[in-house]
Amino acid sequence: MTTRPPGIHWAPAVLVGRAARTAARLRKRGGGSAVPGLVVNKLSPGFLGSVLSHFPEGLVVVSGSSGKSTTTKMLVTVLEAHGKRIFTNPSTANISQGLTSALLERVSLTGRIDADMAVLEMDEGHGALLSPQFEARTVVLTNVMTDQIDRFHDSEKVLAYLRQIASRATDKLILNADDAMLMRLADAPPEVEESPQAPSRNHHADASDASDASTLQSLFDEAGPGPAQAPRGAGTPTVELFGVSEQVLAALPRGLGYAETTVARFDGGTMVTGVSGRSASIAFDGAIHEVGLPARGIHYAVDAAAALAAARSLLGDGFDAAVAVAAISAMPAVFGRGEVVTVQGKQVEFVLVQNPASFQLNVDELDEGLDQVLVAMGSDVADPSYFWPVDASRIGRARIVTGSKAQEMALQLIYQGVQVDEIEPDLAAALDRFLALPEPERGVKTIVFTADPMRRTRSHLGLAQ
Amino acid sequence: MTHRILQLFPELTNVNGDGENALALARRLEWAGADAEVVPLAEGDPAPGFSPAAVVLGSGVDSALERTRDALATLRGQLTGWLAADVPLLVVGTGVELLSRRVELPDGAIDGLGLVPGEATALPGRVAGDLVVDSAWGRLFGYENHGRGLTLDEGVTPLGGVVRGAGNGTGSDGIRLGSLFGTHLHGPVVARNPRFAMALVAAIAGDTIDAYAPGRADAVADAVNAATARRLDLS
Predict the structure, then answer these.
(1) Dihedral, B55, B129, B137, B122 alpha carbons, nearest 10
(2) Separation of alpha carbons B164 and B187, rounded Å
(3) What chain B residue is nearest to A210 in terms of C-alpha separation?
(4) Does A418 map to a domain?
(5) Which of A208, A408, A415 lies at the smallest CB-CB distance from B224?
(6) Contact A449, A373 (CB under 8 A)
(7) H-helix segments, chain B
(8) Nearest alpha-carbon partner for A453 in A414, A385, A401
(9) Which of A172, A218, A270, B16 could cysteine-pair with B186, CB 3.0–4.6 Å?
(10) In the predicted model, what is the mean pLDDT of residues B109-123?
């Protein structure tokens, strides 16, 4: 590794970061979490990589189009249940400024964090940009889905990003065996690409790409080069697989939602052999385990299989299946993912949809004939066209469609035969009216939202972010 | 009679939701009182044994271009026949490219079907964002996301002139050739642009229905487009 080890030379960066954090908090209470990271990344571009690369038991990186938050939380939970002290990042801090800010919360003046291991969720594009700066003991890749096409253009570009992240794995590469694109990484072990610092400059996306990832790239460029291309870790990482059985896949009318699904199922590894409501059967080491899930849906079962595969490989002989299964089964619902909250004395279920595949999976899990649904699409969806392949007809009736993309969402719902009672782009007004409706005759009040309205909704309702 | 809207290879060409224009056409026919259904044709399926009311071909990822071209090539005879019979053919993005003579790629070019008199050539850079086109059906709004443009042969009529965005990369967008309508406006161009949709529905069903009666969805589409025009500062 060419990253600088921890030491007192990082003290100025840490102090500047803390000062920036204080300033940001004075300016905006509870806000400004990306600012300290931005400042430190600019002043000391090697800081993030140095801290990440010097945990006693190494770094684990979780990335992929969807499921990375849940997988990360599950893995952390299992490792902690085995007595490990873990540093992790909140899912809202999975890009580099946020990561650095999260590190600054815990880091000593010498750039060390008092934890055994780091388990970090990374955004695909930002993770690829950061990849030259870190070396990870284990990389877990969840899947490749059609996602944020305005930024990523197509799934090939996402795969190119993930390939770069995977190239930093020294020990284990944990892959979704059902994802045909990820399995290309298993067939041809990822090599460091010609230009690992510029994932946005492959032939699918040129320098004119105005994504936030390339903005970030220019930040690194201005700040001077990061460490020179780090040499490859010792040896090629071993590949471990997780996925679903033939029977599970056959029972899914729309499949798993990956950009490409493998033709044949795999044997061994960590395999979901059954799923029913909030419980899944997951087979590994010759036994089938019953695992409770934080929400309904096959994708949560696959996330659990990914976390169990990673935990088994990280803990080795220390892995205790009973402890791991109990830990995952006891997890509370993840924010906005089938989470039921009580607001103003009323039960409300939150359903977060991050991309077309998760929209489809989550809509398919809704109870039929719900009579109070609010749908919110926000500015995080720059181009709603690619949500059209999602068949949202199961929603049946939307009392209010809201968010800055309310009209575009409503247009899709109307064409798909959903009754749309009202279109109200003002989210706060829509939420207040929706909550004021009398208790629903069937089911609970259900809010289906994309990431940006999820944050605004939580903030408007005074819920933890 | 049921109007069957043929959706070509949606598993390869619905990345941006373009294939859903088939649903939008079917819905508009139903709203006007006609029977309609979307008939998807998957790669490897035998050619349909019926003459469709309209055909929708969307856009896919570059890695699937050759596969899609090969699938289309099995329908060459049908496509030619449908165009000769004035069956409306709505084609978007890489769909138009694959119907042209040639598609330029970073590592060489591939041949298209040659039904569209032109070639797909690389733009100076990838474009992603709003695309606004002035056409025979008024101002069309939508999004584009592509790295290649379309160079039409001399004298070939585009779908319209570009007001915002890149389109073909030559100041115009798409192609209009007989009953073929090609565009870079991806996603639900039919739903988003009611007047264009009405013209297509009229071409499908003629005077048997009132294709020009606006519905509630059209007021929503108008609101989306008015907001876009304000955001883009278009008068």
Answers:
(1) -60
(2) 17
(3) B128
(4) yes
(5) A408
(6) no
(7) 10-13, 21-31, 65-73, 76-84, 94-99, 189-192, 194-205, 216-231
(8) A401
(9) B16
(10) 96
Residues in chain A within 8 Å Cβ distance of B217: 411, 414-415
> Does residue A405 sit in the same domain as residue A436?
yes
Say if residue A132 is in the same domain as residue A255. yes
The whole-model pTM stands at: 0.74
Q: Which two structure tokens, joined as six digits, stand for A90?
A: 């909140």
DSSP state of B218: H
A304 phi and psi, to 5 degrees?
Answer: -65, -40
A390 contact partners, CB below 8 Å, separation of at least 6: A356, A359, A360, A363
Contact A358, B118 (CB under 8 A): no
Domain map of chain B by residue range?
A: 2-231
Final residue before a domain boundary, out of A329, A356, A379: A329
Q: How many CB atoms lie within 10 A of CB A158?
A: 28
Residue A296 tokens read as 């309904």
- Interface of A to B at Cβ within 8 Å reads 146, 149-150, 153-156, 203-210, 383-389, 407-408, 410-412, 414-417, 423
**pLDDT tens for residues B199-209?**
999 999 988 88
**Range scoring the smallest mean pLDDT among A98-112, A237-251, B96-110, B158-172:** A98-112
| Residue-wise pLDDT tens digits, A193-250 | 443 343 333 333 333 333 343 333 333 333 333 333 334 444 689 999 999 999 999 9
First-to-last CA distance in chain B?
43
- Say which of B15, B143, B217 has its CB closest to residue A411: B217
Bridging pattern class, strands A117-121 and A59-63: parallel
Instruction: Residue A404: give the domain boundaries.
Output: 337-460
Cα–Cα distance for residue pair A162/A199, rounded to 1 Å: 10
Last residue of a domain, one of A329, A358, A393: A329
What CATH homologous superfamily does B2-231 map to?
Class I glutamine amidotransferase (GATase) domain (3.40.50.880)
Overall average pLDDT of the A45-55 stretch: 80
With respect to residue A2, please indicate whether it lies within any of the assigned structural domains.
no
What torsion do the CA atoms of A165, A166, A168, A169 make, to the nearest 10 degrees? 140
Tell me the one-letter amino acid at A275. V
CB A386 within 8 A of CB B13: no
Same domain, yes or no: A320 and A396: no
Could you say which of B187, B217, B221 has the minimum Cβ distance to residue A385? B187
B94 shares contact with chain A (CB less than 8 Å): no
CATH of the domain at A378: 3.90.190.20
CA distances in angstroms from B144 to A112, B17, B130, B184, listed in the order given: 46, 12, 6, 6
